[in-house]
Amino acid sequence: MPNAVLAEHQTHWRVMGEGPRSALAVHCSLAHSGSWRDVSRHLAERLTITAFDLPGHGRSASWDGEREIQSLSCAIGAALVPDGGKIDVLGHSFGGTVALRYALDHPERVRSLTLIEPVFFAAAIRGHPHTQARLDEDFARFVDAWDAGDLDAAARAFTAIWGDGTPWHKLSRMAQRALAAQIHLIPAANAALFDDVGGMLDDCRLETLGVPVLFLQGGETHWIIPQISKALAARLPDATCVTVPGAGHMVPISHAKDVASRIGDFLDRT
Predict the structure, then answer these.
(1) At 153, which helix (H) or strand (E)?
(2) Are residues 80 and 28 part of one domain?
(3) pTM for the model
(4) Nearest alpha-carbon partner for 105 in 22, 247, 205
(5) Beta bridge partners of 190
(6) Long-range contacts made by residues 125-131, C-beta under 8 angstroms, separation at least 24?
(7) Which of 188, 217, 234 lies at the terminal end of a domain, its last residue?
(8) What are the distances in angstroms from CA 15 to CA 50, 125, 204, 252?
(9) Which of 68, 91, 196, 249 has the greatest number of beta carbons closer than 10 A?
(10) Can you tell me whether residue 189 is helix, strand or coil?
(11) d(CA 64, CA 131)
């Protein structure tokens, strides 16, 4: 598992599978590159996946709090992609927003784009104040805990919405501490996810992205996810939305075989 300075950030990554098509995969917040292990196993004969640990995650160096985290993540991904040729790009949750921004910044390098539950809240909120108000209600417990400096409570509130369904009290104390230690990375992404600091919603950026895009979501996910996918897909020239029944936000981990099957079907037409 290689480790090097990429985009001026000490970064760890791993390569999985041995398929003829090269892919770049970006994991969700509070996880690491190993979260792609099961999906990659089911796609091993089709894809060679390079997955890196986001700043502050896994074995990569801590985020320094200075460089905008989505932009830094995109730069790291770009450093892992060799010049020439095209790759398939996959992203989950926050990683989905990184994948989308990478594709918009480097369309010439992208063959296809798979966005699994992208938490690009700005896409659903823009022009819909009622959506913002409803989302604020859902996030109130997390915001209150964060503002009070209670990291355990903030992590508990966050995972209650975006986790795999495991109750906080059933996590080991080690796992709880690890989540609390990383929870600062969640508000670190607010400028990208809520304010669109990367300008992805600017006029014509999405409309001119000429690559096939797959939106993949769980059937039991948070209500905002279908709204995000619908808003983005409406502006993309070639977008498909697929739902995995019975799955939640952590669908690539809980339903890896189903996710891999749907990605495989998507790759067949790209």
Answers:
(1) helix 151-162
(2) yes
(3) 0.97
(4) 205
(5) none
(6) 125/194, 126/201, 126/231, 131/224, 131/227
(7) 188
(8) 4, 36, 34, 17
(9) 91
(10) helix
(11) 32
Q: What is the pLDDT of residue 208?
A: 96
Residue 186 sits at φ, ψ, to 5 deg, of -75, -55
- The structure tokens listed for 263 are 């990605």
Percentage of the chain lying above the pLDDT 90 cut: 97
Question: CA-CA distance, 225 to 215, in Å (whole number)?
Answer: 10
Distances (CA, A) of 75 to 81, 118, 139: 10, 19, 29
Residue 232, CB half-sphere, CA atoms under 13 Å: how many? Answer: 32
Domain boundary among 173, 188, 203: 188
Cβ neighbour number for residue 56 with a 10 Å cutoff: 20
23-47 pLDDT per residue, tens: 999 999 999 999 999 999 999 999 9
1 exposure class (CB count in 10 Å sphere: 0-12, 13-18, 19+): exposed
Q: In terms of DSSP bridges, do strands 21-26 and 9-16 run parallel, antiparallel, or are they unpaired?
A: unpaired
Q: Are residues 113 and 26 in the same domain?
A: yes
**Domain match, 120 and 57 both:** yes
Q: What mean pLDDT, rounded, does the chain reach?
A: 97
Domain that holds residue 172: 129-188
Q: How confident is the model over 168-184, as a mean pLDDT?
A: 97
Tell me: do 173 and 247 sit in the same domain. Answer: no
Look up residue 182 and give its two tokens.
Answer: 């990383």
| CA-closest candidate to residue 198, choices 69, 64, 8, 29 | 69
